[in-house]
Specification:
heterodimer, A: about 300 residues, mainly alpha, two-stranded antiparallel sheet, 11 helices, B: about 400 residues, 9-stranded antiparallel sheet, globular
Chain lengths: ~300, ~400
């Protein structure tokens, strides 16, 4: 497997090419020339290449491992986050808030297909009349107390509930059937999540703490992980698209690197300039267009 | 850089799938793209694409709907810029020819927005590409190719609300069509095909009252101040006039690639319509020196009657400043192709309406710039507030085989 479980470092998932599936084991890749045109300016239609379903199945199985790994990391980091709150350690709690959210943001496609949890753990103030509404729970409720009123005692029960909800999510995920489309569409949706008007790019997500870039980076990592898992199939179906995605992720990662890293910390989101946001938006848009081709390119419905 | 142009269009022709039967024996799943290929046919000899020609389609009669967008390019090399413009050109040609987009099956996003429905009829879509002065900076090594009259939009006396965010840009795209939906469709198809490489800087959409008329120019439309606008617009069917007013000629001191092009001036001019609607009609008519309802010059009966300026106040009116009708005043200095716009409300709950001014001219100094300088300080300024815009050079048409702005790289 190209990745190792390392609870202390959620970044252990490395970009890599699984050697388990070689080209020779695939069904013959066959290019069928479709409709063509006799005009000089027309472009040849894309080839359609059959991808061995077994290669997709391997990616799905590997993603299952990745998800389990992220959920385990999420639980341990959230437990540490809750413990800091219970200890009354505001500084430590603030430091662990964006850290504990990273695995969640990496596997949001999964979180989205297990009903109920998103509304419990990642809901925002906008869905309530007041941030003091008892129904406003999860990370952002805690974020509100940590950054707005500094009331750790008020945050503590929500932290306990968050840890408990994530334990339930962990259990529910065991029953989860992952369809291949979760991977292809999920890779795109993680980027859409960043680019949406209410997403990370607008600074709406972590409005009290300004830690949006941690979520942003984690979303991108989750998408990159999916593309890596699908890469053996994509190398068969459309190596140009694979190469394009590599370049576009590298472009995005380079821009994010200018703003910080998990190791050194990211700048508060308000410090991201309009020019940087515009550049990020352009790259995200370009990347999302490419990712939107994954599903069809791999022959999925 | 991107090898996957979602919006790229192909001319689809019926074609036998010779050889497929032989492939079937290999046990390969039928490729979904094949189904799409045999369903739509563009008859040979379909209406010629207005896209192809010596000039871009700026003469097209005023369209019911349109949009001007300015974009910055986000590519790094001259080759990438050429590739971007070639992709843009392909997309534009497909849109102007109403060429159906090849779909690739439900596992892909639809390649067409679907807004116009399947098998839609002609949309009358026109797209004009303009190049901003900033494209000729040091990024792409094109500084020696800059058309000599091209410059950033200068500041005029009433430009207090003009901001950099709503001004200039590396490129302009002016899209017009027979419906607002067709404009939206074209805009989205273009943005998809160029995502990340063309970054929108500002956009303004608009509409026109288009009434059928016997002239090659439709009957004069009205602006949102209620006055006829464009009464003296030249007739685009008059070739000699267009060569005089619109097209850059071989003797105009331009680089060879630019001959056959034209300069585009765009201004987004907000109109303070609540205030205007409370203004005495006599005051409004004096500001323009025209009767509102007929469009006739003050003291005359018909829109096209000769204009008389009996006193200094009349000469100081909007039309007097634009063209004092002295012996040495040229009859035409530009071709107008603008739109009215209504954007809803501003932050103070006042109507955000105005004129999306678009003009094409062979010489910016004689055309837009000189005219606008004469308007500096006019009485109408109290009722209008320009918001932005830009100056662009519209390259010549792609000819029979080329692509838009290709001459820039030859």
């Amino acid at each position: 497997m190209p990745y190792l479980t390392d609870m202390s470092s959620p970044l252990s998932f490395q970009r890599g090419r699984s050697a388990a599936v070689g080209f020779s084991s695939l069904a013959a890749a066959l290019v069928i020339s479709g409709c063509s045109s006799d005009t000089a300016e027309s472009t040849a239609p894309p080839s359609v290449v059959a991808v061995d379903p077994a290669v997709i199945d391997t990616a799905v199985a590997d993603y299952r491992v990745y998800v389990d790994e992220q959920i385990a990391t999420m639980r341990s980091e959230t437990d540490a986050f809750a413990a800091a709150i219970a200890d009354g350690d505001l500084e430590q709690a603030q430091a662990l808030y964006p850290v504990s959210r990273r695995p969640w943001e990496r596997i949001e496609p999964i979180a989205g297909i297990i009903p109920g949890f998103d509304a419990a753990v990642d809901v925002r103030e906008d869905d309530f009349d007041s941030p003091e509404d008892p129904g406003f729970t999860g990370w952002h409720r805690i974020e509100y107390h940590l950054w707005v009123d500094g009331d750790l005692a008020a945050a503590a029960p929500y932290a306990e509930q968050l840890a408990s909800d994530l334990a339930d999510l962990d259990a529910a995920s065991d029953e989860l059937a992952i369809e291949p489309q979760v991977l292809t569409v999920g890779a795109q949706e993680l980027i859409e999540e960043v680019a949406a008007p209410s997403g990370k790019l607008s600074g709406e997500e972590d409005r009290y703490s300004g830690t949006d870039l941690y979520d942003f980076k984690a979303n991108v990592e989750g998408s990159e992980a999916l593309v890596d898992l699908l890469d053996p199939a994509l190398q068969v179906a459309d190596p140009d698209l694979a190469a394009t995605l590599e370049v576009q992720f590298a472009d995005l990662d380079a821009q994010l690197r200018e703003l910080g890293s998990f190791r050194e910390g990211f700048v508060v989101y308000a410090q991201v300039t309009d020019a940087q946001r515009s550049a990020l938006a352009a790259t995200l848009g370009e990347l999302a267009e490419s990712l939107s081709l994954l599903n069809g390119t791999l022959g999925l419905a | 850089m991107v090898g996957h142009d979602v919006g790229e269009r192909l001319r689809v022709r019926r074609r036998g799938l010779a050889g497929l039967a032989g492939l079937a024996g290999l046990g390969v799943a039928a490729a979904p793209v094949l189904a799409a290929c045999s369903t739509e046919t563009i008859a040979a000899g379909a209406a010629p694409l207005a896209f192809r020609g010596a000039h871009q389609g700026v003469l097209t009669v005023s369209a019911p709907a349109g949009l001007v967008g300015a974009f910055d390019v986000r590519v790094e090399t001259r080759d990438e810029l050429a590739r971007l413009l070639a992709d843009l050109s392909t997309t534009v040609e497909g849109l102007m020819g109403d060429v159906p987009v090849r779909e690739r099956g439900g596992g892909f996003p639809a390649a067409d927005t679907g807004i116009l429905g399947p098998d839609h009829g002609p949309t009358g879509t026109g797209v004009v590409l303009g190049l901003g002065a900033s494209l000729f900076d040091d990024r792409f090594g094109l500084s020696d190719r800059r058309p000599p009259g091209l410059q950033p939009m200068p500041r005029f006396s009433n430009d207090r609300l003009v901001t950099p965010e709503r001004s200039n840009g590396d490129l302009s795209l002016t899209i017009s069509a027979s419906s607002s939906e067709a404009v939206v469709h074209a805009t989205r198809q273009i943005l998809r095909a160029t995502r990340g490489r063309l970054v929108p800087r500002w956009v303004q959409s608009g509409t026109n009252q288009v009434s059928p008329g016997v002239r090659s120019t439709p009957l004069t439309g009205r602006n949102l101040l209620g006055f006829k606008d464009g009464t003296v617009n030249p007739d685009p069917a008059a070739t000699a006039s267009m060569d005089e007013v619109v097209w850059v000629g071989a003797g105009d001191g331009h680089p060879e690639w630019a001959v056959g092009g034209t300069y585009q001036a765009v201004r987004v001019i907000r109109m303070l319509v609540e205030f205007w609607d409370r203004t005495r009609l006599s005051e409004q008519e004096a500001i323009f020196h025209r009767h509102r309802d007929t469009g006739a010059p003050l003291g005359a009966a018909d829109e096209f009657d000769a204009v008389d300026f009996p006193d200094a106040a009349a000469l100081d009116s909007h039309i007097g400043r634009i063209n004092p009708r002295t012996a040495d005043s040229p009859e035409h200095v530009m071709l107008r192709r603008g739109f009215n716009y209504a954007n809803g409300l501003d932050d103070n709950d006042q109507l955000d309406e105005g004129l999306l001014f678009v003009s094409y001219q062979r010489d910016l100094e004689i055309g837009f710039l000189g005219t606008q300088r004469r308007l500096d300080g006019e009485a109408l300024e109290e009722y209008v507030a320009p918001q932005g815009g830009g100056l662009f050079f519209v390259p010549p048409g792609p000819g029979a085989h080329g692509s838009l702005a290709r001459g820039l790289f030859d």
